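S.,

As promised, the pyridoxal-5'-phosphate run. Input:
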Amino acid sequence: MSDQTKYILNETDLPRFWYNIAADSPVPPTPVLRPDTLEPVTPDFLSVLFPMEIILQEVSTERFIQIPDEVREIYKLYRPTPLIRARRLEKALGTTAHIYYKNEGVSPAGSHKPNTAIAQAFYNKVAGTKALTTETGAGQWGSALSLACNFFGLELEVYMVKISYQQKPYRRVMMQTYGAQVFASPTDRTNYGRSVLAQDPSSPGSLGIAISEAVEIAATSGGAKKYSLGSVLNHVLLHQSVIGEEALKQMDMAGEYPEVVIGCVGGGSNFGGIAYPFLRENLKNGKRTRLLAVEPTATPSLTKGVYTFDYGDTARMAPIVKMHTLGHGFVPAPIHAGGLRYHGMSPSVSAFCDAGLIEAVAVKQRETFDAAVQFARTEGIIPAPESAHAIRAAINEALDAKMKGEKRVILFNLSGHGNFDMSAYEAYFAGRLEDYEYPAEAVQAAMAELPRVDMLV
Ligand SMILES: Cc1ncc(COP(=O)(O)O)c(C=O)c1O
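Predicted complex:
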């Protein structure tokens, strides 16, 4: 039997098409509503924030959408990404399972986020946009969009959650190196930021608040600036499908097919990216791969949230979608996986979870870092705290297979490296990490604040 470790595709194998799960979804799409009127959004309403090509992709049901040459050229800087068989981790666990991971941490920004950032910057450039606005939590998305805007000559304003701005100065400097302007949110640059600061001058910020600020700046710019979102929406998951398409070919090179595919979930984009091409194989070609989304117990939108209509942001300016939500006013515990601290979830991941087509599990912070350190010490890569959630679940699967004496083939997405997350690792080694369980009562209480749309749809 082969003892190969890395499965590397050629540049010519870089996908030419993104895969759109909407074409094969057995679950009907749910409407996206205006936050002010609760009526379905129109392209006119969305065009304040997004260029038309992105809006068309958001609602497209075409199965394969061609990747523009300009986007593929930049993808070639880091794609196809390697698929690695985690042989040293397998050995350390003494497992009968085979563990594979797709390493998206090799992108210049350090995560999967450039897969959509490059595409979004391109479509904006073509549409004549001069500047973009966005939010970022831990800084991975902000760095990815900074990189992409730099390549396409667009200006970028990043609203970075204040606590992360203070805790992660090097992510901020990275964004500035690519030419972006970075502001600690809440700022005094927006009406919404000023209203938050008036109530709480020392507000640490949240992803929901930062989204509101970035949306407000774009929406009041008279068309000069557009807004870009790094997760949740259909077009973002579409762009991430290159991960799963490559992984299908690489698993084939390895002569195996995964029984379980695992990804961490914040808004759902890296999970959708790796899982949806395998979901297509389940739906169309009789495969039976389990698709497992992993979230923190501190932000358990899929495992404890309610599947209903909610606003995408705290200030209720972003569209309302049907999703698993903890309520748009959710203020997350200060866990170190900043990219997983969102109150909602991608509508498609939510719908598939509700329909039983994918599974979800929540893991605690300390056990997640146990897994991250075990991975670093065996495979050598220090994972992003977000990605470590997928590693925890993959190790749990491998240990379960060992107990049952099964040869289980496990594939997980290593969504990013953690080289800028040393303060999180330092806190872990100092014994300062806490486990947080978000209480079910808090979810119930938040439901009183939901938009009243259930009777309309
Ligand atoms: C490394 C990494 N993984 C995962 C995520 C979660 O996002 P998503 O669910 O969209 O993949 C983030 C978000 O910032 C991230 O930085």
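The first helix runs from residue 43 to 46. Residues 136 and 427 are 22 Å apart (CA to CA).

- D.
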